[in-house]
Amino acid sequence: MARAIWSGSISFGLLNVPVKLYSAVARKNVSFRELRASDGSRVRHKRVAEADGEEVAYEDMVKGYEISPEQYVVITRDELEALDPKKTRAVEIEDFVDLDEIDPIYFDHPYYLGPDKGAERAYALLVKAMEDERKVAIARFVLRNRESLAALRPMNGVLTLTTMRFADEVVTPEELGDVIPDDVEAPKKREVDMAKQLVGQLESKFEPDKYRDEYREELIAMIERKAEGEDVLETVSEAPKPTRAPDLMAALEESLAAVKREPLAAGAKKKAPARKSSTKASSNGKGSTSKSKTAGKAKSTSRSRSKAAK
Q1: Domain housing 148
Q2: What would the pLDDT profile of 171-180 be if each residue is shown by its tens digit?
């Protein structure tokens, strides 16, 4: 059974719906321990002072904000606690918006919200109302002593809560500077049409189950093979090279051909001129032969006419 990591209530006008927060993500990262190479002994990190190398106990530590090199403003725990957001235990809804209006770049971490005991009916009412209106609630709540912005939306009869980044945390495209050059040649219409064809060929419904973490699977398989004594070193594959601008059309044609599983159109075009040239050469040869025969007939006719005149 899932374990709640937070409990509180959704505040919506005069309505308060007691809820519990559950994680919607199960991290499956492969973690490693740091060991000494010579004997495999576990390596542990200690907090030491740079001034004398002495180990520092946790209770003797304070936080400092560096305002200039080696110059710090020291902030104590009491001062930080005075600034901590009020622990209201409430998810306070501020607005309802359309999901399409929220750029995915603002989403951070997903959770599920489930009803607390006795709040099932009010919870179901809120879910139904949001489903019918197709709206997303923008709210604030405090999690782990930090105020967070969040988006609440229904999904298959359950409310999801996704923490969001504040606007000043998101880097806008304008802030990238010259990362995207302004003097890039505009794509040609044929290139755009070909790219659209490729997009259309690869279009499908989103099925999350067909996308796997292949790196994690290969890493676990490698660890298991090495644990059995196998040699796991393999030739490192080269990184794919970026497509150069003059090769865009060729790359698009090859990609389309690969998706369609058809022979390359470009290859057919390359062979066609050779056939045409040979056809032209043979037709030219026939033409010259017929012309010479016609010329010979014309000469003999003119000679017979001149003899008859005489």
Answers
A1: 6-26+86-169
A2: 998 898 888 7
Name the maximum alpha-carbon separation found in the chain.
136
A 10 A CB-CB count for 253 gives 18
| 57: phi then psi, degrees, rounded to nearest 5 | -75, 155
CATH number for the domain that contains residue 95:
2.40.290.10
**Three-point CA angle 216, 218, 222, nearest 5°:** 115
User: pLDDT (tens digit, 9 = 90+) per residue, 40-65?
Assistant: 999 999 999 999 999 999 989 999 99
Q: How many CB atoms are located within 10 Å of the residue 237 CB? A: 6
CB atoms within 10 A of CB 125: 12
On the question of pLDDT at 227 being above 70, the answer is yes
Looking at the structure of the chain, the number of domains it has is 1
Backbone dihedral angles phi then psi of residue 148, each to the nearest 5 degrees: -125, 145
Q: Is the dihedral of CA 41, 46, 48, 50 positive or negative?
A: positive
Instruction: Give the pLDDT score at 42.
Output: 96
Instruction: Yes or no: say if 7 and 20 are a contact pair by the CB < 8 Å rule.
Output: yes
Residue 242's pLDDT band (boundaries 50, 70, 90)? low
Write out the H or E segment, with its range, that includes residue 80.
helix 77-83
